[in-house]
């Protein structure tokens, strides 16, 4: 568990300091805003999809704590090249991981680098910081691309 905690902290620090895919797209196909009132994290997600509903470009922007920023950064890295269905499946898996019992072995199969967020299980107050970007991704993927976009909240 100490190993996971160390890895968790170093990945959070790295992605918070140098977030991947940070910014906005000029004409996104889909977008959503996310808000975690518990911590004050705010996030905007922009997506471009191809005809097979595969993510071909993704950017995020906003203001949040280190965990929410790192989670969004890792999520956008993961989502590039994935289909809507793959991403929604992984969202469920990620959510199950971070809300599982820290005393039990984490099911991280297939999560790749996202597995380090198993470390957040030891900090229950920060779970919503980790899941905000995934709630926002789900809202964007399920939106119709019209209007001002969806607003996701962790409440
Ligand atoms: Zn936060």
Give an overview of the whole structure.
The chain is an alpha+beta fold and 155 residues long. The protein has one domain: Sufe protein. Chain: A, CATH 3.90.1010.10. The protein is built from four helices and four strands, in the order H-E-E-E-H-H-H-E. Strands 3-2-1-4 form a four-stranded mixed β-sheet. It is globular, with a radius of gyration of 15 Å. Bound molecules: zinc ion. The site of zinc ion has 8 residues, from helix 2.
The CATH topology is given as: Sufe protein. Chain: A
**Ligand roster:** zinc ion
Major sheet strand order: 3-2-1-4
Q: Helix/strand-derived class?
A: alpha+beta
Q: Biggest sheet: strands, sense, closure?
A: 4 strands, mixed
Percentage of residues assigned to helices:
25-40%
Mean pLDDT equals 93
- Rounded to the nearest angstrom, the distance between the terminal CA atoms is 29 Å
Listing every helix as H and every strand as E from the N terminus to the C terminus, the arrangement reads: HEEEHHHE
Rg, Cα atoms, Å:
15 Å
Integer tally of domains:
1
Indicate the proportion of strand residues.
15-25%
Number of helices: 4
- CATH architectural arrangement: Alpha-Beta Complex
Report the uncertain regions: none
Please state the overall shape, judged from the principal axes of the Cα atoms: globular
Q: Give the total of beta strands.
A: 4
